[in-house]
Amino acid sequence: MKILVVGGGGREHALAWKLAQSKDVEEVIVAPGNAGTALEPKVRNAPVAAEDIDALLKLAKEEHVGLTVIGPEAPLAAGIVDRFWNSGLRCFGPRKQAARLESSKTFAKEFMVRHRIPTAHHASFTDVEEAQAYLEEVGAPIVVKADGLAAGKGVVVAHTLREAHAAVTDMLSERSFGDAGARVVIEEFLVGEEASFIAMVGVDGAILPLATSQDHKARDDGDQGPNTGGMGAYSPAPVVTDAIAQRVMNEVLRPVVEGLRAEGVRYTGFLYAGLMIGPDGTPKVLEFNCRFGDPETQPILFRLKTGLLQLIDAALDGKLGKTKVEWDPRPAVGVVMAAGGYPGDYRKGDEITGLPTAASPTSKVFHAGTGVDASGTIVTRGGRVLCVVGTGDTVQAAQSEAYRVVKQVTFKDALYRRDIAYRAIARGP
Ligand code: AMP
Ligand code: GLY
User: Does 7 sit in the ligand 2 pocket, CB within 6 Å?
Assistant: First the structure.
């Protein structure tokens, strides 16, 4: 079977790499892919943008693709899954209505209130003066979010009222996030430790939780600096004990899938709950993503021993409830190497050197914003350039392995955090 993976980031490199390992897979086509997917055995890139649904449909038909897996949120929010199924093509991801869990924060918040899913208190506004009056009423610290999709950057955690007012003015009056910020959600500041809880949901509503993970959203060491799409992630996340994972299934994931069903919406695909785990172990939802996380996918799939195609087929055939999933017990740590300036303006087109040439059982360099230039050189093409994953018997060993490889890879003004997985390491082996 041929598989099409839609997207071109680190998540899609990991998805394609893992899918290509299945003996039932003849070839994985990635649209548009990156230099990493171009070089992967059994994987080929097609120069089609992840948002160009018409061209993706045409590609899937021409190539007789048996399954399409959608990586990023934009095509999901635009209804790519509806379009594929309507054309008789198998496709893994939520339909447009279900993807609103991510594409509209207001929808997600109201849905959680309707179904008593634990989350921060909130109010949502389109009017600047009303938003500012509300800020004066509730005070700081407070969180201001653009309602629509803003690539993980439309969130301001304001420690003072001044910062909060500035964020509201920026989004509603200056439209710094365009239409995504035409409505803002202002929410209670939650205290605790964050974790990513990602599951697969089958057509019958069965939920298979994947290994836990933790992202690092701030750009700089010690969680300082601006918010980004994610600077590194590791799996498993010890903050999510088995008891907490059980609570997340009972208090968050099952109510989400059942709540959507009660409203006439079926959710199929990866479902990601970004959680704040309170000091007493209570999980509260920060956000939903209707896809696999990036960079969480990279360390999670590095640990997955079961075939990914087998899991996706089980989800689409209504057999996920009976499916067992096997993980490498060793932790994996993924360090993102970004282009200097990210998440602001950054350089492109710089040569990347020192990339490993042979496969290793203890590390893997997943590409994100990379490309091959006219002379065949691998160059930077995006903000997050690579995600280097390492594994070892302890988190510390996995971290050392990841940084050992990071230090061999160079490009101009490379930027990366030196402390990925510090919370897990602080908890001890
Ligand atoms: P989001 O994109 O909604 O997950 O927000 C991005 C980041 O902002 C999160 O990963 C948290 O670090 C932080 N954040 C978002 N909402 C809250 C909240 N209600 N309380 C505390 N921190 C938050
Ligand atoms: N790593 C966070 C996300 O994928 O949204």
Answer: no
Q: How many CB atoms lie within 10 A of CB 131?
A: 24
Q: How far apart (Å, rounded) are the C-alpha atoms in residues 222 and 206?
A: 38
The atom of ligand 1 lying closest to the CA of 154 is: 2
What is the distance in A from the centroid of ligand 1 to the CA of 373? 37
Q: Which atom of ligand 1 is nearest to the CA of 217?
A: 10
How many CB atoms sit inside 10 A of residue 147's CB?
Answer: 25
pLDDT in tens, 269-316: 999 999 999 999 999 999 999 999 999 999 999 999 999 999 999 999
pLDDT value at position 429?
67
- What length does the chain have? 429
- What parts of the chain have a pLDDT lower than 70? 149-153, 180-181, 429
Element holding 70 (H helix, E strand): strand 67-70
102 in ligand 2 pocket by Cβ < 6 Å?
no
Q: Which atom of ligand 2 is nearest to the CA of 295?
A: 1
Ligand 2 centre to CA of 293 (Å) is 4
What's the chain's Rg over C-alpha atoms? 21
User: Which residue's alpha carbon is nearest to atom 4 within ligand 2?
Assistant: 293
Work out the angle between the directed axes of helices 10-20 and 308-316 (0-180°, nearest 10).
90
Task: Give pLDDT, residue 233.
Answer: 98
What pLDDT does 428 receive?
78
State if residue 230 touches ligand 2 by the CB under 6 angstroms criterion: yes
Residues with C-beta less than 6 Å from any ligand 1 atom: 120, 143, 145, 152, 155, 157, 187-190, 194, 217, 227, 274, 286-287
CA 155 / ligand 1 centre spacing (Å): 7
Q: Cα of 43 to ligand 1 centre, how many Å?
A: 36
The one-letter amino acid code at 156 reads V
- Nearest residue to 8 via CA among 57, 52, 62: 52
Tokens 């993976």, residue? 5
Closest ligand to residue 286's CA: 1
Is 194 within 8 Å of 273 (Cβ atoms)? Answer: no
For residues 118 and 251, is the Cβ–Cβ distance under 8 A? yes
